[in-house]
């Protein structure tokens, strides 16, 4: 074991942590040890948003500048106490392909994933029961993706429009940054077919605000506008979970924000939050997501 390795006890689990000094965010000087520390400290508000949701990992073993890969199947070398759930692959057309997902329901599992350099955690808008039964979607999400030169500032203007439509339908909504370029607006699922509902909202807003909003993926239509990606409600799709790190040059976080912050956003930096800043926000305001 090197000086940058450690054996730790996490609640009633024992974990070997490795390469703690390794720079996973080289430009920012942010190490694997700091990634693990962030996920450990943010766990009280993060774990409830992971509960009962199969997790897709985005791993960066050599840091954000190195090669990365998505991982849906739980690694075979996992500790025996890591809970997994074998589910039919959402994208399977044959109906017999399965994925053995990691279920993150305790702090030790979260720390273990951080030690694997699973910087990003992505989840669907549905949960599973204790025996693996897939439930109907409980969340509705509008993923707002800006086409350059549009930024998160334009996303905020679109988010306000989405919120007004949902308000008119009697649906409360809340927002978070993506931790990357855009943001998401969420609500508790107001209809069984959340994908069709989200599509109708997106198409309506694109018609009402054609200079600002598009509802189709055609890249030729997107420069300077915001794409409302309603397809994130497809059961096969996943979205970055609140409080997950993102693999950018700095350790930015997908951060729950208030509607006042959305309305007040005038420059990109208004809504960029790093790991330390998010920990401070949670300490002072608690979990803003879903409230």
TrEMBL record:
Signal peptide start-end: none
Keywords assigned by UniProt, alphabetized: Ligase
InterPro entries membership: LigD_pol_dom, MtLigD_Pol-like, NHEJ_LigD
Xref: CDD domains: MtLigD_Pol_like
EC number: 6.5.1.1
Top-level EC class as recorded in UniProt: ligase
Highest rank taxon of the organism: Bacteria
NCBIfam families: ligD_pol
Protein name: Non-homologous end-joining DNA ligase
Organism: Lentzea sokolovensis
Native organism taxonomy: Bacteria, Bacillati, Actinomycetota, Actinomycetes, Pseudonocardiales
């Amino acid at each position: 074991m090197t000086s940058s390795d450690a054996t730790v006890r996490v609640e009633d689990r024992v974990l070997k942590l490795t390469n703690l000094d390794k720079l996973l965010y080289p430009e920012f000087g942010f190490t694997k040890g700091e990634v693990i520390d962030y996920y450990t400290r943010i766990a009280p508000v993060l774990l409830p948003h992971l509960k009962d949701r199969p997790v897709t990992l985005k791993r960066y073993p050599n840091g954000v500048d190195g090669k990365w890969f998505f991982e849906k199947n739980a690694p075979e070398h996992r500790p025996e106490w890591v809970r997994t759930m074998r589910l039919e692959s959402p994208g399977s057309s044959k109906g017999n392909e399965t994925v053995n997902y990691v279920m993150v329901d305790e702090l030790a599992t979260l720390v273990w994933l951080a030690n694997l350099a699973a910087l990003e955690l992505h989840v669907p808008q549905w949960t599973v029961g204790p025996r693996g039964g897939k439930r109907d979607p409980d969340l509705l999400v509008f993923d707002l993706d800006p086409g350059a030169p549009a930024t998160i500032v334009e996303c905020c203007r679109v988010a306000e429009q989405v919120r007004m439509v949902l308000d008119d339908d009697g649906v409360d909504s809340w927002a978070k940054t993506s931790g990357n370029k855009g943001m998401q607006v969420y609500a508790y699922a107001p209809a069984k077919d959340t994908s069709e509902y989200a599509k109708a909202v997106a198409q309506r807003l694109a018609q009402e605000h054609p200079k600002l909003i598009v509802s189709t993926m055609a890249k030729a239509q997107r420069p300077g506008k915001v794409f409302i990606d309603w397809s994130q409600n497809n059961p096969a799709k996943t979205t970055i979970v609140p409080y997950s790190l993102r693999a950018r040059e700095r350790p930015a976080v997908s951060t729950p924000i208030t509607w006042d912050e959305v309305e007040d956003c005038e420059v990109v930096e208004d809504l960029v939050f790093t790991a330390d800043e998010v920990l401070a926000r949670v300490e002072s305001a608690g979990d803003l997501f879903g409230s």
